[in-house]
């Protein structure tokens, strides 16, 4: 079985066990990555995230969890112009 097939099976198992949709999995992954960066000493001022679902709801969700960070949620978010991000301890 190839990687894409395994990924599909894993996603289906997660959905069957926990009733979590792909958008929620993606949101939780992004939140986990931001938390991990903050926990290792990275000072994030802006985070650019590709949209999954409604971009404004997603931006609000992220901003509620991390109020000190500016989030840009958009299609092809990594192509948007960004200001500098300062890293500490990395």
From TrEMBL:
GO biological process: DNA replication, removal of RNA primer; mismatch repair
GO cellular component: ribonuclease H2 complex
SUPFAM superfamilies per the UniProt record, alphabetical: Ribonuclease H-like
Statement: the UniProt record of this protein carries the keyword Hydrolase: yes
Keywords, sorted A to Z: Endonuclease, Hydrolase, Metal-binding, Nuclease
Reactions this protein catalyses: Endonucleolytic cleavage to 5'-phosphomonoester
The protein, known as: Ribonuclease
Phylogenetic lineage: Eukaryota, Viridiplantae, Streptophyta, Embryophyta, Tracheophyta
């Amino acid at each position: 079985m190839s990687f894409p097939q395994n990924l599909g099976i894993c996603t289906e198992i997660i959905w069957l066990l926990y009733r979590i949709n792909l958008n929620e999995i993606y949101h939780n992954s992004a939140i986990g990555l931001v938390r991990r960066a903050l926990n290792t000493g990275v000072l994030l001022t802006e985070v650019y995230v590709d949209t999954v679902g409604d971009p404004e709801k997603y931006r609000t969700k992220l901003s509620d969890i991390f109020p000190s960070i500016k989030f840009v949620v958009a299609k092809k978010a990594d192509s948007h112009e960004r200001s500098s991000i300062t890293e500490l301890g990395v």
